[in-house]
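Supplementary Text 2. Reproducibility record for the structural model of the 541-residue chain.

All settings were left at their defaults, and a single model was retained for analysis rather than an ensemble. We include the record here because the model underlies the residue-level annotations in Supplementary Table 4.
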Amino acid sequence: MYSYEKRMKAVLLHRDAGMGLKKVMKTLGYPRDIKVLRQWCREYQSSGTLHSIEGYAEGYSPKQKAIAVAYYWRNGDLKRTRAELGYPTTTLALKRWIEEIAVLENKRLQSGHNPVKCVQEPQTEAGNTLPIQENLLVQAADPHKDPAFLMKLLQGRLTPMTKKKQEPTTASLLQEKEELVRAIEALRKDEETLRKQKEEAEEKVKVLENNLEKLSKQTRDQELEYRAREIASALIKKDGGVSLKDLTNREKAIVIDALCTKYEFPLKRCLQLLALSKSSYYYQRRVLLAGDKYAEFRKEIKEIFENNFNAYGYRRIWKALRNNGKIVSEKVVQRIMKEDQLVPYFKRRKKYSSYEGEPTPAVSNVIERHFNADKPNEKFLTDITEFNLTFGKLYLSVLIDCFDGMLVSWGLSTSPNAKLVNTMLDDAKKLVNEDDHPTVHSDRGIQYFWQSWRNRMNEFGWTRSMSKKGCSPDNAACEGFFGRMKNEIFYGRDWQGISLAEFKALINRYLHWYNEDRIKMSLGGMSPVQYRISLGLLPTK
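Retained model, structure tokens:
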């Protein structure tokens, strides 16, 4: 209950000051319900005033307080009293009322007043607060018609009365049982909820621990790989960008030893990183500790490889060692070359093609892929290839003898013109006996259809032979020579800054080396010139 003055103050703040209802409640601290304030405003708007409440002071009236205190002494429960009566708003206010009325009752009992008589006496204005409080208290208890309760109340008990114990009945026991069952069920649900929450929390912790472990493992793996590359670059002079799995087993063993001793990485992780089995690692360790028994061969193999345009594979190097009187297995040579990275460069490139149609009828294929000859100057193969360099293109035309693969003659030019092939043919004619009339096989390049080429072939008495159109296997032996040549001296090398004259000199040097020194396995490990000398076809040098 709120006094007339408080209600008017709230209404005027809303009406005259222009405050909103919520702001009025926040400013004044009352009322607690916006519906109550809205009802005050409507009443004032309709009647121009608010109704007065007789007998009520600030807040709750003495009668309301007495009724609340009497109800509390009856049941002994503060919360139940507030719930049943609907007031006061706080438990603290009810406790304060109880203390106030208890103090008044103690004073009255000390003065010798009769509480029952006080109930029967009429109310007077001269009684002031105490008779009013006594009368209201008795009126509040009167509906219960319990004189014993009144006597206990008026005797100034300061502690709440407990409920009178009643004999249990079947209904009360059943009700109590149901309440216990509900309480147990609520506890069980709460326990289940807590259990689920605990499981969820434990699962989240496991996930976080797994993620942390994965992150830590990833970090360790990255550090391991970084250290491995660092060691490979420092110890065995490998580029930092090289794949660790491309290292030889010997190099891997060196790297693993350094990782385990210097950085104390686990051996198992090092072996996994470098893709090396445990047995191979321990074998390489024994070999490293025992020393390199092929140290002498390593040096000589490297010299042979470098002195021959980095073009020899392990078979030719093995043959060169045997020619020098060094006996060693082919597999040993192969392994040493692999360990020392002595690998010839191989790359397939699109070959030069000079085919531009057939201005004159093509001749038949006389060779028919029979690239063997019983004697020199019986079958010749010819073709043109190109070298694409920074200064432009350089073209090479060769004439190959099918007897032993010897280069009979060759020509170099910056243009694949008639002069290139004609000059080559004229040089070959000077080296061939007059009694020899070889068959010259070519593809269907335009150079071999020109009149100057045909006139020379007819003049020399040599026979023309041509491959089928677009069929490179018909001239496979010549194509193979160009492929070997480019793999051995051209592909995989930096030609920046080289001049035309320097490159021509390199090509001529290689072609002479091919004839005189390059080992051919089909010739028993000899070069074409050495082979002809062994047959007595050429004089000994």
